[in-house]
Amino acid sequence: MKIRTLIVDDEPLARVRLRGFVQAEPAFEVIGECGSGTEAIAAIRSATPDLVFLDMQMPGCDGLQVLSELAEDQRPAIIFATAHERFALDAFDVAAVDYLLKPFDRDRCAQALRRAQQLIHHRRAAVPAPVPGGKVDRITVKADGRLVFLKPEEIVRVEAADNYVLLHLVDGRLMLRETMAAIEARLGAQGFARINRSAIVNLDQIREIQPAQHGDYTVVLRDGTKLPLSRSLRGQLGRLGGGSP
Predict the structure, then answer these.
(1) Do 87 and 151 have their domain in common?
(2) Nearest-angstrom CA–CA distance, 197 and 18
(3) Does residue 112 sit in the same domain as residue 17?
(4) Which pTM was predicted?
(5) Which tens digits make up the pLDDT trace of 8-43?
């Protein structure tokens, strides 16, 4: 099944160029184009693409506002394609697959598409039979050529480590060659939340959320680990039952 891709950019020439890059990849198909943020919201809701190339600054609303209008379970994989470098941290705070800075070439775009393909493959992959409550009883990961079977409760947190992710377990650690976006897609329904661009935590492992300087917050885990809570991801912790900080 091809990866259904939507292109969102207010510049017609940029859309044409990006369409050419995407159509050169056999695993992808372009299902539509939008020239504004408001059009993008409607198109994503109606066409449910697997992947969206999203400009950052557009008429109507910007790329981050587009995502804020979509429920978490409605969000496709996102590759930001923009001329503005200053939004990169914000993009990764919302778990973007990649951030392409214009002008980018075909090779750089292909690299981003490979990352998106990995994430979408994980989203589509069959998971073990669920237990009551919607969770799975184990998660399979590949580490050092081994297949390791973990219960979700064995994972304390996930940490970004360059091109790898580091699983911090209750009894050790595992290094995986996987992206944060891909592992987030696998763990999101299992009681985990991304609290900043470099950390995903098991909600059951959170002991408290402390106020920090300048209106920020710090997440404190049961093992004493302290992690900053991204302002753009505070809503994730509403799943704790007590609402956002």
Answers:
(1) no
(2) 26
(3) yes
(4) 0.56
(5) 999 999 999 999 999 999 999 999 999 998 899 999
